[in-house]
Amino acid sequence: MFASSYLARPLGGVFFGILGNRHGAGVALKFSMIGMAVPASLIAFLPTYRTSGYMATGLLLALKMLQGFCAGGEMPLSGYFVALNTGERNRGLYCAFTVVSGFLGMLLASGTVFALPYLVDASHRFANPAVAGYGVEPWRWPFLLCTPLSILIYLLRSSINQDLTLQTRRSSHGKPTLPLFQAFVLVAFMEVVIYSIFVWMPSYLHSYVGVSSFNAHISNVVSLAIFSASMIVSGYVARFINASSLVLCGVVSLVVVSYPLFEILQLDDISFLLFAQTVFAIPSGCMVGVIFVVLTDLFKQNWGSLGMAITYSFATAIFGGTAPIVCSYLIEVTHMITAPAIYISAIGLLAAPVAYSVSSVTHDAIQLRTSD
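Structure (tokenized):
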């Protein structure tokens, strides 16, 4: 069920990318955001398997795939729209906030799921699975919250200035393939880092290292907070340093420190966990915070929204969603608990020359603009 949304992302990337090129990234962004919010609200009203059998499963699968389809356009087009319609001085910072907002949403969702059972147990009104007098099972509550959020999203997205949206249209003739390759490799490495170090890490620490579930989650929350702060700092520093140089710095740093930090994680002490994950978070934030600035510069004169959406969604589906599976498989095959570090470093070694080539081209372009 979880994987179904990832399978639909590439198709959504193609659809919303084409829509963005034809009608503006802002228009595509509106529909993708609404398309993610509405299915989440509808899940609250689904019948259960007990009452409807496989029909309930099929409906849930359809809504999850619709969400994944729309997610293929939402995040990449958000970053693309912000990067194109923000002044040169502030676009790194604004793009960083775009990425951070996505992680805050994940944290809030995880916190809601974590807190709901405790809220249910603490309330005398939940003596049975349904809320007395209302017939609403507690599991439906988070999805019901999506209904007012969907309305708010619609109002916010409807207020996007159409003039700014029109600025995101770009000519599609003479499309080079090199930017697609460069963007795909950079996003692939970014997704491997995010899913291996921040999404899967608590499970890794608990299952393979033997860290308590509480300590694993506490250290991960701290690392996510530092990761978010590092992204914002990176976005601000992009005022003074070329964004592609920051991406290169993050990639190279992660290649160098991944294996030593995974060795430190084996020490099974909360202070060492915090140290290792903090060091992971800083170069990761340096790279991820300004990635949309770099990707936008690659595509704004050729592939436009389509290039951004398809490379981001395909790389996320292929490398992001599979990273925990690949890391677990490598551990089982090699019998090395540090095997995920080798995988991260291997993908990073592929991404480093790409980041260097992008950095060199961008630096030359800036020098040319300065001389003019």
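The longest helix spans residues 339-371. The chain has 17 helices and no strands.
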